[in-house]
Amino acid sequence: MTALENQQIVLGVCGGIAAYKVADLASKLVQAGAQVDVIMTAAAQRFVTPLTFAALTHRPVRTDLYADWLGDETGHVALARTAAAVVVAPATANTIARLALGLSDDLLAAVALATTAPLLLVPAMEPHMYQHPATQAHLATLRERGALILEPGHGRLASGAHGVGRLPETSEILGALRNLLGRTGPLAGRRIVITAGGTQEPLDPVRYIGNRSSGQMGWALAEAALDLGAAVTLIHGPVLRPPPYGVTAVAVGTTRELEEAVRAAVPSAAALVMAAAPADYRPAEVATQKIKKAPDQDRFTLSLVKNPDILAGLRDLPGTEHLVRVGFAAETEGLLAHARSKLAAKGLDLIVANDATSSIGAAESSAILVDVAGSEELPVQPKARTAGQIMARVVDLLRRNGHL
Questions:
Q1: Candidate list 211, 307, 354, 401, residue with the active-site label
Q2: Mean pLDDT of 52-78
């Protein structure tokens, strides 16, 4: 279960050209399991019709403060009371000013004024409007009151100009919203270190030894930890995806770089979840020039040396006496036996065992959670759900140890 499942989100759409992009946000919120109530300002309806959002959310779109409401509905009061969060996107200069001044002459402003739910503002407008001292002062006022402001992106705008003012990507808005909803979660005030992806051990300037780890599980774990309110340090190898919104990302290349980054991060952490797939060996020597294929050479012998065992090396690291340690065991045979052996040898609190032949690079996988008390088998399911169950176990371990 993610932070968005079964949550009522009020989505305020204002009158900017970026309003058409917010249709994708509404769709993604519904796909994530949220109930979405869209409020459109009069200006927003000049850019996108209410029918678009009604079709995407399967709910009526609200446009009028004084419209008739049915049954137990009580207009802006009901929306304000039941909202888990209010998102305003695109937040125009006009709406930002009206929210800062506490005006309530339309439905969106009235809901924002009446609710105690957290507020996420996603400004999008022309650069001079955004950078104007009045707009910046209004944003500062709203920020001081607790609103989360997701800064606009930089690039080409609808006018043809280039500058700051683009609506952020849907994935970034969703990440910011999940961050906002997780502020009061059980891991609030705790730092969790998560590692993700494979490492690459250089052979020469163009080749390396690596593996097929995609980093999907590490990303899912980072998002699950954020949902629970944690401050997340994500240490990752080379991957083709941006870090989740809200994490402190540390990029590394080799296993020894990963070890150095982990040892620097864990003394201030409550837990380490080691989902990365570091290379066990590295070339004994790295060629300074590209190794050429000799015409009369049918075989090439490569000498390897062992890389450090990062988890085992943390057992006596000062400042980590109370660190909850979670490891992974990706195996092709003897899954439980290898997992139990690693659990003891590396001094872990929990190990996640999975079949390397079916889990690496896949969107879904099965897993077995192993600790000193026994094992729990998880079904084949999306990695996001598995990550949520792993992080729930981390919360339990921290509570059991008296650190929550």
A1: 211
A2: 82
